[in-house]
Amino acid sequence: MRIKRMLAAAAVVLAMSGCSIKPADTSSGSSPADSAEQPEIAAFPGNGATGMEITREEYRGEYLYFLAKNGYTSDTDADTLANAQHQVINSMIEERLIRAKFAENGMTISDSDRESIQKDVDTGVAAMISSMKSALAAADSSLSEEELDEGAQAQYQQLLSTCGISEDTFYGWQETIFMKQKLTEKLGADAVVTDEELNSQLQALITAAQSQYQSSPATYNGQNYAGIWIPEGSRAVQAILVSFDYDAYSEISSLRYEGKDEEADKLREESLGGLQERYEVIIARIVAGDDFGKLMEEFNDDQGNGTFLLTPGTEVFGKEILDCAMGIDTVGGTDTAVTDYGYYILRYESDAVVTDETLNATAEQLRGYILESKSGELFDAEMEKWKTEYSYEINEEFLEL
Prior knowledge:
Distance between the termini: 23 Å
Number of strands: 7
Radius of gyration: 30 Å
Oligomer: single chain
Number of helices: 14
Strand order of the largest sheet: 4-3-6-5
Structural class: alpha+beta
Order of helices and strands: HHEEHHHHHHEHHHHEHEEHE
Largest sheet: 4 strands, antiparallel
Shape: extended
């Protein structure tokens, strides 16, 4: 929800909301009480449907929140603000239509669904407050944990108050998302993906992968297409990184960036001494026949990578790793690459190929994606029909603050 930008804009939004909203027109002689009974309407359905209007006050709250969420300020240009106004009011119109069609189709929300919706809201609010707390801590390291909690809560409440919304607003938004999903599923229930259509799209992906590889083997990342196509000669390689400390790595990287490769190579060689003891322990365990996978769990400093898919010519993981891995003679063999990260102990796990099982699984995932896309298109088409049916009219003069 881009909380930091919300907070940065909160003061500006408060100022905008406090002095820029036009007062209700009382020129007809109506009393304040009469005006309260007849709220100003920002948008209403032209077909006469009841209970689906959008009051100016409802719009104002969501618009202020939109401004804060997107970091808009009093300096934001008029065209951008005008686009924001229409984006908000159109979104609110779509919400009204979704709720109407959800009820019209006899659809309901179960107690368990409501609990799930509330859980999503609670998770989102907690994340918002946590982000505010982190921002406070970064701004003032002297604050205690209790002061940070109190400050984050105060900022969160200020955001709600400034925008004139509540957690019920968040629940309503999440509830609408649920309703839209259920309507989309209903509309897409009869959608199908033929085998011909599936095979056509699958082949298009394979052709794209082959084209990328052929045009630039060095920059090709085989993992992106591993479920559909792998170049001949590719290898699955397990890896254990014994890494330099952060300072050594940073200095080596800086030297590389400055084009001082000889100095970087020298520093790297000197820094290997600090890794030697741990490196030799791992090598000894490998020689003793310990399971490489378990050694990875115990020693690997590169938690983001376990097994590399190395395609011939790729330098995505570095030339040192490529040359070392491709130089291992037999499956199950090991060797070590010296890199700017430290020692990479590599094991040639297997030849990498796309099995029929993998390709079929990928095809079914693709089928699901196509079905989801078709369902979304059907929903979008219905939404356009609903908009025509209800023909909402917008009071443009009420959209500005």
